[in-house]
Amino acid sequence: MSYRNKFVLWLIVANSYVTSVSGETRTEQGVGLSQQTSLNITVYNQDFTLVTDQREVNLVAGANQLAIRDVCARLRPETTVLKQTSSARDLKLTEQRFDHDILTPGNLLEKYVGHKVHVLRTDAQSGDEYQEEAEVLSTRDGIVLKLKDRIETGIPGRMVFAEMPPNLHDRPTLSVKLIAKEDGDYTLGLTYLCSGITWQADYVAKLSNQDTQLELSGWATINNNTRSIFNNAQFKLASATKFNTILSTATASIGSDLNPGKRGSNPFDDPYALLYYNIPYKVSIGENQSLQVSLLNVKQIPVHKEYVFTGMDEYFVQEDDEIANNAAAQVRLRFLNNSDAHLGFQLPSGVVRFYKTDASGQVDFINEDRMAAVAVNEELNLNLNSAPDVTISKWQTMFDILPLDPEGGRSFLSGFRYTVKNSRNTSAKVVIEEPIPGDWEIIQESLPHKMRKGRCAWIVDVPAQGEFALKYNVRVTP
Fold first, then answer.
1. What does DSSP say about strands 230-239 and 275-278: parallel, antiparallel, or unpaired?
2. What is the pLDDT of residue 348?
């Protein structure tokens, strides 16, 4: 058993205390959670969090020292802003110190290196308790004490410490020095950034039997890995794929029976803007705890299922022969984020997990896909799984390197042939997508193409137990 488990610490910890181990006299007023009037927390998805903590204190005119207890254990001291919000009385912050060390037997001993403690022991013969004064020499790899006539290690018994070191607290504490112009009650607002609180969105998608409708539920999960407790806090979640100093004023409310946003609004006109989701009630989250709040629950979302083949851009600038042979299609679901689909609000990025009920009523897990943030009126494309009963074969039918143009550019002429087979008992909507690079022009094609999100696409309904052929030639200048 280590020395930390052998010691029973006898400590007197008061809200205010005088005198430190070093002999310096100081008076510090503790400001605990009982004096907290509000707590607001904004969680960003880049592992940093904005905390605004408001507390009431009584100050005297002149210099005051405060120990603001139970701040976030992963507070970044250089980001703190402390101001009084209750009146126009002057208040000046002169010094602040964040004590990273939290009270433990080991930390307490380390603070007493070079100082005196008392060791309480029991006489083996008489059973009487006696004490010896000792100086703590070292706590590295165990404890080393210097007693009156000897040096000992691994000391059994109890240790008594005279007082609490000034820079050691039982909870994460921000110590500040400030000057008040006059006596009175003040409301202090402490704002700071910290790490260790994160959030994520997760979605559950339930498909209808015919894969024509979707029920979509979303959860926002807040994870607290700060070694701190936050009680009765008003949480706000910021969603964005990028972050900079441009912040959107758009906000949304989330809750079990509230929609996460205003229909028809699109705060992502600026791609760097943030969308804020407000939790409409106060919540508490403990140390190493996760909290889930409902983000949305929407039923009867019309969806379109299609079988997709996506090529690669390298085949347009190199010679090849057989590119694919009976490759399975990717099953994709498409739907619009608009009011017609019973949606129409900003959806934060997250993982979508798909479920479906079979003929016996058993719910089966199908697959999962990660969804990027989706703006209002934007189309969602979510991948389910592969379909071995819908396959494609692809061949390159021609490849020529064309002469240099007057500016020295090189172009390529390629031809391709596809055969799509549908072994299903129902027809399949098939999409062939090609990310053709650079400047390109379709010279010849057996079916007119369309453009889909910057890709050239051919879309066709392949009958049950049938097949479809596509041919085209394209000139490409990378």
1. antiparallel
2. 87
Ranges under pLDDT 50 in the chain: 1-26, 241-272
Backbone angles phi, psi at 87, to 5 degrees: -155, 180
pLDDT for the residue 4: 39
Q: How much is the pLDDT for 267?
A: 39
Within its chain, how far is the Cα of 90 from the centroid? 39
Q: Which CATH number fits domain 305-337+378-477: 3.40.50, 1.25.40, 1.20.120, 2.60.40?
A: 2.60.40
Query: What does the alpha-carbon distance between residue 297 and residue 343 come to, in Å, rounded to a whole number?
Result: 10
Give the position of tokens 């006299």. 25
pLDDT, residue 454, reads 85
Write the burial class of residue 344 (CB in 10 Å: 0-12 exposed, 13-18 middle, 19+ buried): buried
Q: Where are the domains of the chain?
A: 3-35+61-112+161-192, 197-301, 305-337+378-477
3-state helix, strand, coil in the chain (%, to 5): 5, 55, 40
- CA-CA distance, 181 to 433, in Å (whole number)? 71
Cβ neighbors of 29 (< 8 A, separation 6 or more) are: 15, 16, 57, 64, 65, 66, 67
Q: Tell me what pLDDT residue 273 has.
A: 60
**pLDDT at residue 276, as a whole number:** 82
* Residue pair 432/457 in contact by the 8 Å Cβ criterion: yes
- Tokens matching residue 353: 């997990």
Q: Residue 13: which residues within 8 A CB-CB, separation 6 or more?
A: 164, 170
Q: Are 120 and 145 in contact (CB under 8 A)?
A: no
Query: How many alpha carbons fall within 13 Å on the CB side of residue 100?
Result: 4
